[in-house]
Amino acid sequence: MRKLSSIQTIEQLKKGMLDLLVQKEYQEIRITDLTSKVGINRTTFYLFYDSKDALFEDLCASLLVPFYIKYYPITLKQDAQDEQELLTEILLFVEKFQSAFARIFNVHTLHGDGESLLISSLE
Fold first, then answer.
1. Annotated DNA-binding ranges (predicted)?
2. Within 13 Å of residue 111, how many CA atoms lie on the same side as its CB?
């Protein structure tokens, strides 16, 4: 197996987390599950993340920060046409990534503290 770059490893870990969320409850996912799925060892995982939660927060941020950057300026405008444009864009974005959002929000529901986890991923 070829060696992955740091960026590739991080992206593979995020994708692995999303894939595992389809198969298991968040609480059931172990670091070993992630490392096996991605084909790395636990030591490599810990070079990038302190915990499964840190990976999950990074995953949330990777989905939400680009969204925030793209749509926040529209929220500063004050007319109705811009509000309709914003709503349309938001719905299209959510539709495009509906599978990822469904997995993430399911985990947030299980955590019972979804709002603070989402906020912390944007900070």
1. 30-49
2. 16
